[in-house]
Amino acid sequence: MPRFTSKLFTDLAVWMIALGVLVGASFPFFTLALGIGAAQVLTPQFWTATLTAGILLGTASYLLARLVVRPRLQLLGEHMRVVEKAIRDATYTNDWSGCTLERCRVSVDSEDELGESAKAFNDLVEALFRAREVSSAVSDFSRALSCQLELDALTTQALDLLLEHTGGLAGVVLIESAGELVISAHHGLRDPQALIASGHVRQALRTGECQKVEFPDDVHVEAVLADFRPREIMVIPVEFKKTPLGVVVLATSRVFTPDVEWLLQLFRQGFGLALNNALAHHQLQRMAALDPLTGAYNRRFGLTRVSEEFHRAARLKSSLGLVMADIDYFKFINDTYGHLAGDRVLSVVSDTIRRSLREGDVMVRFGGEEFLIALPGASAADTRRLAERLRGAISEMVVQDGDQQITTTLSLGVTSYPEDNIADLQRLIKRADDALYRAKEQGRDRVAEAIHRIEPDPNPPNADPLPDVSAAPS
Fold first, then answer.
1. Which residue among 8, 259, 290, 339 is buried most deeply as judged by most CB within 10 Å?
2. Is 39 strand, coil or helix?
3. pLDDT tens digits, the chain, 474 residues: what are they?
4. Are 202 and 209 in contact (CB under 8 A)?
């Protein structure tokens, strides 16, 4: 339909009045067809009356359409302007207070085209708010994880955010380490360890695709993993540049919606990057803390750990055993078989010692062939028994170097807090080192205990840097 002006309602007025004029002009001929005489119809007065009636009808129709349609269009336009302004302001301020879902929606009061337009506008507003929520969730997720490099803290925070934004009730984060899956964080699961052997977990890790397991209402699940009856479990692999890093498992009492599945796809991208950074940081920390040859803590980091255990024992009034161990005649081994053979002996000795320790014990490469071992909770008797066990294991050890078989022995000095009532870690280590000297002087391949002395000290344990302690003679 041709347009006359740039305004829709002005064009509508023109067309309606023109239609009224057309009806008024044709009405006399219509009356002739009804049998009314021409002398009565074809007169100026009748023409004027029908034209006036047509113009009035067109005008009334226009006013009625304006009264009914225009307010709805104006309301729709006003809401569009509100949404447009809110989007423009939020682009720079991220403040959406000017447009809430209730304020921006349009009331739908008809089932015609105008009603459909209002519904379409409301659907658009809801989609906009959902997109904003997803964008905000992904942004918060990425921002929260990007500033976290500690692996355990990262995975715990990531799992909490995933459960919050997906409506999940339980979950676990499994990290691949040396070809095995280990639990890094979990929430709401009775036996998260059981998930490591799950075929769905292995398949997700192998294929890089999410796995979804649904449980129908009429199916009873035996050995339920969670503290609720799961309706659906989602297994999400985490990758960085196509390299698998781990798996996230989420369980819910209802079905995950398609929106949640899309959200998880966005989350896993940011989590993959953050997890890769945390794993790299963890590896660097491990490399910085461990002696590369023996796998024990290096002296700097190890003494910090021993100091932490000593202060914990003093604070909790618990025991702490210390063992100073030295490989006998190590210089002779280096001179006779070479330094590569000596390095191998050091490595095998440290591995043998480590296998005899508990998970919470601390092993430090204190000097060239000297090790300091801290045993939280160990009494003097416990410390002595462990030292004897280490001495026996090393004396039975054989290191193969080509055609040569190398044997060695270990001398050890032991002490224990609070039996050795010293409130200063420096002197406690010196006491174990003195006991090691005596073991060397008494013939090596033996354990010597420190001579316990009661030295009351009203001051709290000293945390000053530890002085160098001379190595025991080889």
1. 290
2. helix
3. 566 666 666 767 777 778 778 877 777 777 777 777 777 767 787 778 878 887 887 788 778 777 777 777 777 777 777 777 777 766 666 666 666 666 667 777 777 677 777 778 777 777 777 777 777 777 777 777 766 777 788 888 888 888 888 888 888 889 887 677 888 888 887 778 878 878 888 888 888 888 887 765 544 343 345 456 677 888 888 888 888 888 888 888 888 777 777 778 778 877 888 888 778 777 776 777 788 888 899 998 899 989 999 999 988 889 999 999 999 999 999 999 888 899 999 999 999 999 999 988 999 999 889 999 999 999 999 999 999 999 999 999 999 887 889 999 999 999 999 887 777 899 999 999 999 999 999 999 999 998 765 555 545 545 444 444 444 444
4. no
CA nearest to 450, candidates 407, 406, 418: 418
Amino acid at 115: G
Residue for token pair 């023996």? 294
